Amino acid sequence: MFRKIFSLRTGRSLILLFLFPAALFAQQNNTISGYIKDGASGETLIGATVFIKELGTGTTSNEYGFYSISIPPAVYEVEFSYIGFANWTETIDLTQNVKLDVELNENAEDLVEVVVSAESENRNVSDREMSVNRLDVATIKKMPTLLGEVEVLRSIQLLPGVSSVGEGASGFNVRGGSVDQNLVLLDEAPVYNSSHLFGFFSVFNPDAVKDVKLYKGGIPSRYGGRLSSILDVRMKEGNNKKFAMKGGVGLIFSRLSLEAPIIKDKASFVFAARRSYIDVLARPFLSGDFDGSKLNFYDLTLKTNYNINERNKIFLSGYLGRDVFGFGDQAGFNWGNGTATIRWNHLFNDRLFSNITAYYSNYDYQIDFGDESDNLFDWDAVIVNYSVKPEFTYYLTPDNSVRFGGQGILYEFEPGNAVAVSEGEETDFSQPFKYAFEGAAYAEHELSLGDFEINYGLRFSYFNYMGEGTAYTFGEAELGQRRPVIGAEEFDQWESIAEYTNLEPRLSLKYQLSPVNSIKASYMRTAQYIHLISNTTAATPLDVWTPSTNNIEPQTAHQVALGYFQNFQNNDYELSAEVYWKTMDHLVEYIDGADLLLNEFLEGDLLEGTGRAYGIELMLKKNAGKITGWASYTLSRTERQVEGINRGEWYPNRFDQTHNLSLTGFYELNKRLSFSANFAIISGTPTTFPTSRFEQQGYVIPHNANDTRNNVRIPTYHRLDVSATLEGKKNEERRWQGQWVFSVYNLYNRRNPFSIYFAQEDGRIPTGTPVNTEAVQLSVIGNFIPSVSYNFEF
Amino acid sequence: MKFLKSNIFPFLSALLLFASSCTDVIDVETDPADSQLVVDAWINDLMEPQSIRLTQSQAYFDNSFSDGVTNATVMIESSEGTTFEFVHEAEGRYVWTPSVTGELGAVGTSFVLTIELDGETYTSETTLFDAPPVDSITQEFRDDQIGGPDGIYTEFFARDLPGLGNTYWIKTFKNGAFLNKPQEMNLAYDAAFDAGGEIDGLIFIPPIREATNRVADDDGDDDNDVPPWEPGDEIRVEIHSISNAAHDFMSIAQEQMTNGDNTIFAIPLANTTSNVANAATGERVLGFFNVAKVTSLTKMIE
């Protein structure tokens, strides 16, 4: 089966092609390699710098903290550095290969003698990558929050090019892409629904997160499967030096995380848990009908690692999160993700690093109504996938490395298992399962030639929608109307129903103009084979993923981006300016009155469209001094064209925002007290207004005589949040460190619009009385929201 | 499954209250549009005057009654060869009164509506479908109703007719007054909500059976403290057979009229699809033509 669905031959020839340039550069070099870690906790550091002073060249550590650099034999001074950590310099006589694991120590003021690598690095300018944002957890934790909860996903919305349809909406939009076009990875396993309580809180426990990296463009060939972005969230490995505990008590969640060595310096774990207690708080106010209501969400994160020996390391990580709502015995609703990842880092030799990941990921929801056995309604839906993903990195010279690998994903979709029992009569209207396989092979070559750095790669992706299942064919219908089923064909297990392949070239390059400025450019083609079926303003937890089929083509996109990067004043200020242009094909749209859930003939309700998005993103960042922060501005447009919507003409997406300006600032008054604030002002998103109304059987029905879509903008959104953090008194004797965080969300109490809807006035209108219709503005947050939380470390 | 849209999303939206959500009536401007002919032709086989109303669509915030179109000729011709003339009475209302029961025709008869107006002809076609009898109406005292007061709640029982694709509009009348809020509109596709479900030939599922209870609002006479039914009230439940296209029309209309209840999960504004068109150009006007068979049951609340 595997051979049939994944062409090994194609994979192998791609790898050979990319190894060819490598051979040209191989000389009589020796290699320094090893891991770079945080000396206090033993956590590996991602993206730490290794710099060979004599050669003026260097490298950075990879996602697992590993580095390798091959240079001619000589004596070198090698400098290791990482933001916020003290530099470490080592003199190395490279007469043979050297293994060197380095532990860096945090930039504490009592270490006077060392050169501190303050924030002032020129990464912004010198890194080849563009359209990439990294947020470290320390920064995320300093930002003002809603109800005191540190939030990964809300934080990235303060970066240029990232938006959302409004407060409370789950997911986020990157450079004009819809929410399902982001691949959210937690230790390499995809997370299908990244939010708790719709979009208010993300599923990531900040105490377990180590690094967050968002790719908006120029995505390297090792990532694929979504059109618009990759959000790569890496979990901590756990302190392998000593026991550590962190926790917090807020208005929404309580958090606790524990980390400790299992075998010192060899094996460790981290376990983090959160639970909300709105239901506990609300219980005194719930009586009668709502007594016994459940309303909570929780998540558990566990990771452990084991250093078998110098060459082998194993990581196991797991996540389980759930939102639970229940109303007495009469109704219940819950949803959640689960992921499990196992990874094996293996060093074939000092230059060839490999990682093999295998993961399981699932998202499901369950609904049940009815408290008696002869009248009930039970329903659940599931998406499950299993994947194996080998990857190899070959470090040739400091200027030259090759990465190649592949991935296979097996999907199982259960779009709805539903049973209704009415007066003891049972009907099962479960939808048939769907199966698919997605395979990919990729290779990329990273090369630096003086001031010029390039990473080019190619990803070959393959998708097989397969049996067992029924493939339907649909007839013609008037534009924008439901298409009738005209044929059905049965397929056996593993039998291919529809196959698709895509070649996805990726390219990114940098030209260094001077030590303080550079220009960068990138191109990517991406393909997406699974689609979230959703036509509501904000995606709902009930939305179901569907594979590409004989009727639904894979979505594809091209994106080019060009950027200018400049640092000022000794790297204290960073400026970046990027423009991008993106086109998208085979986007999924919906007919009016589409029936998206528990509908076997769903494909007849779908339309296909094309999209385009373009914009300018500016970011100015201040890294040093008492006041730090950034300003981010995006001018953009994202549009669609669909036969059957808006008379076939281009129209803006529901999440289109012309201007999006946000300011984020941090002020450290003294060692104990610091403040932060953020302000956002965003153009109103477009929506559709009716032009007219007409009467039918006494009802007043809205009508848009021009048949337009998203023709009007809702008012501008703006909001200011502030927070103050008070650290407990430092006491050397005591390991317990406390911290109070006070914050106010929406400080000046603005009722920001989420949407405007049209309805008849509330109340019963007697027959024979004219009906008043009105426009109503919905604000999700209608007040300022103060909060306080207490965090501790032990 | 629209069940969710109408039941779960508003239910979930209630959770947004925790986030202090609120609504404000605001003034907005809508694009101007030409007014269009509206045909409101939902007739049935009951022994009572049947009326078809012709009006003009109006600007969305024009809160007056629509102007009636008074100078048209309106008639319906059945596949059995009978012609029924609808005569203008007032304000665009055209009326025909049956003289004997079943005068329109039996189940399966098809009808053509023809409207002549200002030199143009508008036509539409439909068929009279069957409706199942209302078997019973029950009442129950509930003290654990989600989001509603303690009191008497009702439920009707009827069984969907065999065969896939039967569509119905179930209407409830309290003391003779139709429960007319958009949220109270009760549409069924077979025994459940819509086509994908394929729940055929069963007793209507509970959410449909229980949609005979009024939906509360903020108005003091009808708010959440007032029980839906009290002893002495009269309840009448009617099942109207409607065509599949009529079901689609009313579903979209209902979704649009109640879209605000879905808060952040609202769907885009969508237009209903009419089945009345200009005979010469094929261009559709607004509104709908349906001929229903009606079954009903009346009961006194005890």
Description:
The complex is a heterodimer of chains A (794) and B (302). Chain A is mainly beta and 794 residues long. Chain B is built from three helices and 18 strands. The radius of gyration of chain B is 20 Å and the shape is globular. Strand 50 (773-779) of chain A pairs antiparallel with strand 1 (22-26) of chain B.
Short summary:
The complex is a heterodimer of chains A (794) and B (302). Chain A contains six helices and 51 strands.
Distance between the termini of chain A: 52 Å
The helix content of chain B, as a percent range, equals: under 10%
Computed structural class of chain A:
mainly beta
Structural class designation of chain B: mainly beta
**What is the CA-based Rg of chain B, rounded?**
20 Å
- What fraction of the residues of chain B are assigned to beta strands by DSSP? 35-45%
Report on the biggest sheet of chain A.
Answer: 22 strands, antiparallel, barrel
Q: Return residue spans of chain B where pLDDT drops below 50 for at least 5 consecutive residues.
A: none
The separation of the N and C termini of chain B measures 35 Å
Total helical segments of chain A: 6
Biggest sheet of chain B, in brief?
Answer: 9 strands, mixed
Beta-strand segment tally of chain A: 51
Helix amount of chain A = under 10%
Q: Strand sequence of the main sheet of chain B, in spatial order?
A: 16-9-8-5-6-7-3-2-17
* Count of DSSP H/I helices of chain B: 3
Kindly report the average pLDDT value of chain A. Answer: 88
Q: Indicate the radius of gyration of chain A in whole angstroms.
A: 27 Å
What does the oligomeric state look like here?
Answer: heterodimer
Task: Lay out the secondary structure.
The complex is a heterodimer of chains A (794) and B (302).
Chain A: H1 2-5, H2 8-25, E1 30-38, E2 49-52, E3 57-60, E4 66-71, E5 75-81, E6 88-93, E7 98-99, E8 102-104, H3 123-126, E9 132-136, H4 137-142, H5 152-156, E10 162-163, E11 173-174, E12 182-186, E13 189-190, E14 195-196, E15 201-202, E16 209-215, E17 229-235, E18 244-249, E19 253-263, E20 267-276, H6 278-282, E21 294-309, E22 312-327, E23 331-347, E24 352-372, E25 375-397, E26 400-422, E27 425-428, E28 434-449, E29 452-466, E30 469-474, E31 485-491, E32 496-514, E33 517-528, E34 530-533, E35 544-547, E36 555-568, E37 573-590, E38 606-622, E39 627-642, E40 651-652, E41 659-668, E42 673-682, E43 686-687, E44 692-696, E45 699-703, E46 712-713, E47 717-727, E48 737-745, E49 755-760, E50 773-779, E51 785-793
Chain B: H1 2-13, E1 22-26, E2 37-44, E3 50-56, E4 58-59, E5 73-78, E6 83-90, E7 93-96, E8 110-117, E9 120-127, E10 136-142, E11 151-157, E12 167-174, E13 177-178, E14 186-189, H2 206-209, E15 234-242, H3 244-257, E16 277-278, E17 286-292, E18 294-300
Parallel strand pairs in B: 2-17
Antiparallel strand pairs in B: 2-3, 3-7, 5-6, 5-8, 6-7, 8-9, 9-16, 10-11, 12-13, 12-14, 12-15, 15-18
